[in-house]
Design goal:
Radius of gyration: 28 Å
Number of helices: 19
GO molecular function: ATP binding; ligase activity; metal ion binding
CATH topology of the largest domain: D-amino Acid Aminotransferase, Chain A, domain 1
Strand content: 25-35%
Distance between the termini: 85 Å
Protein name: 3-methylcrotonyl-CoA carboxylase alpha subunit
Keywords: ATP-binding, Biotin, Ligase, Nucleotide-binding
Largest sheet: 8 strands, antiparallel
Cofactor: biotin
CATH class of the largest domain: Alpha Beta
Oligomer: single chain
Number of domains: 5
Strand order of the largest sheet: 14-13-10-11-12-15-22-20
Shape: globular
Structural class: alpha+beta
CATH architecture of the largest domain: 2-Layer Sandwich
Number of strands: 39
Pfam family, one: Biotin_lipoyl
Helix content: 25-40%
CATH superfamily of the largest domain: ATP-grasp fold, B domain
């Protein structure tokens, strides 16, 4: 095997290249037009453009990908995860073309990759599964009563949380089935769905297995991935802090037994739901490498990608089960371009500043973003994975909290602060979590995080911004007015800290320090640079580590103790001139429904003249491969629709106009009196 074509993008492509280089294997990356110019493309020895705009034309186009592999004389294709990684037809096409598919056989993928077939195989092998049924949408609508509510709808060919919905009552079922089928067709090319009994508040535990072509199967122990949002994991860890040694042995044995039953080859992961009593049920098998594989690598010392390649080359496993040990504890956080305060809506955009953490026992798998990189809305919103290791769970948790403090993403919404809050939360520390934890507690979590932030005294971010703007920016100023701002009788300036204006009086300023006073606080401070955007704030002889990023002239982001504070210099004339009052909202403007994120309209559920109530579905916008329901904010009537299905939209696009019900009543009354 001399050359591997990687049929994927982003961080997993970089991860595969890293191991290939170690094994002295050349690599080729295919890429869609949306990824042209991405920094990660430079990691490969060669690149091939996939023509087209949609996933079906690019990363899901098996014919073009195989043609690219043949054109560059690649011996093998590594599919990564997602896209074509669990497509048996693609694996079979590779085999027919004489190209090594770095993954399991098509037969094993058919047995396990189709979730319906996988359930049957598990039942045959004696592994417990939850009750469920399969069929067409009309058949499922006729038979769902045998499963009962709540139930879970899943894409038969799915994985990674895509094409999955929980339904609590009958009125939600038809729309949820249709939406899941659409999502499955779009992401996996197969709209088959099935339903199963939904287990409330379970744990999610999965077992990593390896199988070679000689029939040997081993496991690399388990991972726990219970903290999820939108049915997708955001924090994973190994080993599971929940399982007892006896249950760990049983669940790992069940995984090996099931993999052996289908003659599994390559790396694979068997996922289980674990109840409060530690009973477990087979969920599905992912016949590919998992996003969260690094936590297993850090706790076992085994390079899973390397094992995939060696197995694909026909080499027998050189690892014996009895020699595999778990060492310490590893935690992975997925870094997403999303807004936790808006139900984790995807948040694509342009990066103003990007800096990854580094240090001992810190690993980051990323797509090599940099200042000015564009995070597109065409793909999954995950931009990196941050992984830490410690001698035990608490050591790994503290290391992760430290690493998140050193991770900077500005210009787009992201989940770093949310992850940091979770890592500090007593429920995570004491392992009081489940797959429903975030869904149930989201509002309370966000409020607790905000309360923690407010408890931190604003003196540190205020002083850091003050000293930075006066001393570190002075060398770039064209006049004293730009340095100290608007002088009045007493030298003073106005700082807006998190929306609150504070008047600061400057008593004395030298080239290295500032003496100041505000409200009832006074002090003397200086600032010493310790790295890129890193400083030690010396305030009254006490040292405080802070990070400072100037988002715009006179607008600073101060990170202190895990929180980001926005501080503005409102005394500077050109800043003050830009402080416009929020626009007033007229009754007409209030009726304009705009897109909450960039994306594509995939369904319009209303028509002009439709009477709607608050909470009714208006349309569906797909962003970063997730469907987002746009609901009516009020009672009223649809007066106009400005978009069509298939249209691309952004946050400035008006989608629908709704006239308030009361306004219509008044208008009809006025017309009647003429």
């Amino acid at each position: 095997m001399n050359k591997i074509l990687i049929a994927n993008r982003g961080e997993i492509a970089v991860r595969i290249i890293r191991t290939a280089k170690k094994m002295r294997i050349n690599t080729v990356l295919v890429y869609a037009p949306q990824d042209a110019g991405a920094a990660y493309l430079h990691e490969a020895d060669e690149t091939v453009l996939l023509e087209g705009q949609s996933l079906g034309e690019t990363y899901l186009n098996s014919r073009n990908i195989i043609a690219a592999a043949k054109a560059v004389h690649a011996d093998a294709i590594h599919p990564g995860y997602g896209f074509l990684s669990e497509n048996a037809a693609f694996a079979e096409a590779c085999r027919k073309e004489g190209i090594i598919f770095i993954g399991p056989t098509p037969e094993a993928m058919e047995a396990m990759g189709d979730k319906i077939a996988a359930r049957r195989t598990a039942q045959t092998a004696g592994v417990p599964v939850t009750p469920g049924i399969t069929g067409t949408v009309p058949e499922l609508l006729a038979q769902y009563a045998s499963v009962g509510f709540p139930l879970l709808i899943k894409a038969a060919a799915g994985g990674g949380g895509k094409g999955m919905r929980v339904v609590q009552q009958e009125t939600e079922l038809k729309e949820a089935l249709e939406a899941t089928a659409r999502e499955a067709k779009n992401y996996f090319g197969d709209d088959t769905v099935y339903i199963e009994k939904y287990i409330e508040a379970p744990r999610h535990v999965e077992v990593q297995v390896l199988g070679d072509q000689q029939g040997h199967i081993i496991h690399l122990f388990e991972r726990e991935c219970s903290l999820q949002r939108r049915h997708q994991k955001i924090i994973e860890e190994a080993p599971s802090p929940t399982l007892t040694p006896e249950v760990r042995d049983r669940i790992c044995h069940a995984a090996v037994q099931l993999a052996a039953a289908i003659g599994y080859q390559s790396a694979g992961t068997l996922e289980f739901l674990v109840g409060p009593d530690l009973s477990f049920y087979f969920l599905e098998m992912n016949t590919r490498i998992q996003v969260e594989h690094p936590v297993t690598e850090l706790t076992t010392g085994i390079d899973i990608v390397e094992q995939q390649i060696r197995i694909a080359r026909g080499e027998p496993l050189d690892i014996r089960q009895k020699d595999i040990r778990q060492r310490g504890h590893a935690i992975e956080c997925r870094i997403y371009a999303e807004d936790p305060e808006q139900q984790f809506l995807p948040a694509p955009g342009l990066l103003r500043f990007y800096k990854e953490p580094y240090g001992e026992h810190i690993r980051i798998d990323s797509m090599l973003l940099q200042h000015g990189s564009l995070v597109t809305g065409d793909f999954d919103p995950m931009i990196a994975k941050l992984i830490t290791w410690g001698t035990d769970r608490e050591a790994a948790r503290k290391k992760m909290a430290e690493a998140l403090q050193q991770y900077f993403i500005y210009g787009i919404k992201n989940n770093i602060a949310f992850l940091s809050g979770l890592l500090h939360h007593p429920d995570f520390i004491k392992n009081r979590i489940s797959t429903k934890y975030i869904d149930i507690h989201l509002a309370g979590l966000l409020q607790q995080f905000e309360d923690r932030k407010k408890k931190e005294h604003i003196q540190i971010p205020l002083t850091a911004a003050l000293v930075f703007s006066l001393l570190h920016k002075a060398g770039n100023a064209s006049s004293i007015w730009e340095t100290i701002g608007y002088w009045r009788r007493v030298p003073q300036l106005i700082l807006d800290v998190e929306g609150k204006d504070i008047v600061v009086v400057i008593h004395r300023q030298t080239h290295s320090s500032v003496d100041f006073e505000y409200q009832t606080v006074s002090g003397s401070a200086t600032l010493a640079a310790t790295g890129a955007q890193q400083f030690n704030l010396i305030l009254d002889q006490q040292s405080y580590p802070v990070h400072i990023f100037e988002r715009a002239p006179g607008i600073f982001i101060i990170r202190y103790n895990g929180f980001d504070y926005t501080v503005k210099r409102n005394d500077i004339l050109h800043i003050a001139a830009n402080r416009l009052p929020p626009p007033s909202v007229s009754s007409a403007t209030a009726g304009n429904i705009c897109a909450p994120m960039p994306g594509k309209v995939i369904k319009i559920a209303v028509a002009p003249g439709t009477a709607v109530h608050a909470g009714d579905l208006l349309l569906i916008v797909e962003a970063m491969k997730m469907e987002n329901n746009i609901l009516s904010p009020k009672d009223g009537t649809v007066t106009a629709i400005d978009v069509a299905e298939g249209d691309k939209v952004d946050t400035t696009t008006t989608l629908i106009h709704i006239e308030d019900a009361n306004s219509l009543v008044r208008e009809d009354t006025n017309q009647g009196t003429k």
